[in-house]
Input
Amino acid sequence: MAEDQGLVRGLRILGNYMSDPSDTRGTAAWSGNGPKGAVSLYYLWSLERVGVFCNVRTIGGKDWYRWGVDLLLPTQKADGSWVGRGSGGSPVIDTCFALLFLKRSDLLPDLRETLQKRVTISDPGLDPKGINAKKGAPAPEDSPLTIDFGEVPVKAATARLVRVRGPEAFRITGVRGTDDQLQAKPPSLSREVQELALTLRPDKSGNFRRTIYLVTDIPGRAEVAVQIEARVSAAK
Output
């Protein structure tokens, strides 16, 4: 069976787009699409549809499901919901998109099987002319995770428990970039999914943004960048 060159080219450029999970190109940059810098849940679900339908484990040389899980788990709210870009910041719609991605449901198994019988579909890797070929552009695995605290009161402690998934069991041995405003308590056991306790106590109102670095024992990933965001309201 021959490869469909349209699918090959499409998968190749899609791999390049995975460097920007917030999907802020062109009209997608419109502020009404949801919180700036947040993950686009509609984009993730669309990518999941491609991965399942084409029956490929990797896109652009990257395990697309692991990539998405690493983006979703740390951004899940305390009540279990998600709020991201792509739907105007609707928690109901965004949570549906997140769950559909995590489920990896095959809604059209007969069509997928028919396609597999007609053409060979494999991951062609990244487009050498795409965005990752630009000098200094970060690889997808180097893009920081984002944790949005939402709206928090100034000078009051707000706690969050977030999950960080690794490729296998790992430990978070330390955290760099914390201070009196932002504290982190890493777990001590080696697990595939770690629960990181964060406490935010901002000293002034406005937008809070900070990048911290998780020190890990993951081979080749001594540090993992995590971006912390919040909208700090003034005291009443």
